[in-house]
Amino acid sequence: MPRTYLGIITGSFSTPAADNPTVVAMEAAYRHHGLDARYLNCDIGSEELAAAVSGARAMGWAGFNCSIPHKRTVIDLIDALAPSAEIIGAVNCVVATDDGLIGHNTDGQGFVAALTQVRTPEGAHIVVLGTGGAARAVAVETALAGAASITLVGRKADEASTLGAYVTQATGVPASGKGWEGAYAVPPTADILVNATSVGFGDPDAMVDIDVASLRPGLIAADVVVSATPTAYVRAARAAGATALDGVGMMVGQAAVNFHLWTGVEPDRDVMRAALEATLAD
């Protein structure tokens, strides 16, 4: 990109915001690729979101991320939704275009990007633990990426079944819900197991309630929890001979998709991951 004295501005609107390390990965990649760009981490409450979005428009921001608690409410403040964001019903990345502010959901796209480092979702039976926002994004994006079938496991069986029916209706991929009672035994037909719960966040020794004996070689066990040290789930998967993907990979994948949407540049993911790992280790 030609250098000017009008830099690219991007950032994040969330609250709380002080513990969000995305800024480290983004700024490291901006420097690495020689871009005159900044990423501003902004603590924005619900009552301030409309003004923040208007301000980003007025100042010509290239885009911004939205995190808790704005992923749904921001939809009414922007101009259109990308297809997957419309299906998921939540936005975590907004991109400024000639047609206005367009909302994307890169949570699931980041997961698929990380997963693709070891295999594509195409033709896979994917088991997703959890029924919250992360589970919804992972289920939708893996379905759109060609998964053969999806099982959603939740403490409330009706919520899991409802989400499964929605994924099927929205994507055409067979998805079903299953109640989570006691330690969940991973079915032998599963190719990919995803912990899309918050278990392990802030306490890497907390173990998601699964039957560890059902983990096995050949299984891909992925975690959405970002942790400075491997979570108990990731450690157990590796000990069982499974291929384990940690939550840092998903965060890097998500950041890389955001980066490309805002700049048109495909970033060096190794640079982003190294920056994240360094800051998480501090």
Provide a descriptive summary of the structure in words.
The protein is of the alpha/beta class. It is 36% helix and 20% strand. The protein has 9 helices and 12 strands. The protein has helices at 22-32, 49-58, 83-88, 107-115, 133-144, 157-171, 232-239, 247-263, 269-281, and strands at residues 8-14, 37-43, 63-66, 80-81, 93-97, 100-104, 125-129, 149-154, 175-179, 192-195, 220-223, 243-245. The protein has a 6-stranded mixed sheet, with helices on both faces. Strands 9-8-7-10-11-12 form a 6-stranded parallel sheet, sandwiched between helices. The longest helix has 17 residues, at 247-263. The chain is globular and about 60 Å long.
Low-confidence spans: none
Question: What is the number of helices?
Answer: 9
Portion of residues in beta strands equals 15-25%
Q: Largest beta sheet, briefly?
A: 6 strands, mixed
Biggest sheet: strands side by side, in what order?
A: 2-1-3-5-6-4
Order of helices and strands: EHEHEEHEEHEHEHEEEHEHH
Structural class: alpha/beta
Q: Average the pLDDT over all residues and give the rounded result.
A: 95
Supply Rg. 19 Å
Q: CA-to-CA gap between the ends?
A: 33 Å
| Count of beta strands | 12
Helix content: 25-40%
What coarse outline follows from CA principal-axis ratios? Answer: globular
